[in-house]
Amino acid sequence: MLKDVAANAGKIGDAIVSASNSVYTTLHDDLHWSGAAKNAAEDRAVREQREMRAVATAYYDLESASESLHGAIEYSVGQIKQLVQLHEVEPVVIGNDQAWTVHGMTDENEAANLSSSLISFATTIAEADAQWKPKIQEAIDEIRRMAPISNNIDINAGNTSLSPERAAAIEYANRWALSRNPDYEDLGDADCTNFVSQCLRAGGFKDEGDGGVPQMHRDDNGRWYYDDDTAKVDKSYTWGGAPNLHEYLLRDNPQSGTPSGTEVQTGGITTTTASADPLALSKAGLKPGDIVQYELNDGANAGTINHTAIYVGQKPVTMPNGETVMADVVDYHSKENKQVPWTLQQGSGSSFPLTYHMIKVNYPGD
């Protein structure tokens, strides 16, 4: 257990250092720009690199303390297990007390020697625990103060560099990633784009057009709306259809206040184990609140854009190969997923090979 804690803490520390170095190098060395914006970005990169390394140091402290405690008690724990297994045979019973009293052994001297050995090993364990447990707790407290400790702890929208609109979209995404908002129609296994449209609306975008005569204009990819004031919900295909939303976001001359965006990068991932940059979204310039669409190899409309997810931030994650890395993560529906690697490599292999489309969304507050 302690060995596993130490190993995982070390991996997370390595991932954080790698991510901080990558961001710094990209801003400082790889981008050819100049002026006040460059200086401000580099200053921020230095600050964030320093902060991320402080987080990594806390993980390394946890790794070191856990390894030290494991090393200090491993032999004694093994000896206690061995002695108990060897001697606790009916009618002999070893008491669960500080004296490790041995009952039912005919040779009293042997019983006393066994108790003495067990006490000695237990004392070694207690002394090591007293020495290293506070250091482990100190490292854990520092990690909790500065960063999440596991994949199960949420990231949130408290990033002050994001507009309030982006923050609202992310907050909605994280709120409803693992369930369905009853205020909207549930589209079952085809709910992914419906969910992302809800996030966009929560992020301040206004509907464009409406059905007029119910469902008459829902196939118009120049409209984006959800109308539940009619007897039957009337929504545009762009609201719930992945390829339709893609066309709508990239349209020419978008109306002010309605969703629009720019496709900044496309590419492919061949398998669940293929090499794919876990931080590709942020490196491409996407911010939390932006969108990734996919051409999955399975499901409805395989081979066309048939899946939509929303980028919500970064966190350490454990990949299918067991490696812990810092990754850009997304929320999406259909099969509910919250804050999972954007590469989707934690999912079914039947979706691969896939093609991705990174879309930078023009939020009202940007």
UniProtKB/TrEMBL annotation:
Pfam families: Amidase_6. Residues 165-348 form the Putative amidase domain. InterPro entries: Amidase_6. This is Putative amidase domain-containing protein. It comes from Nocardia colli.
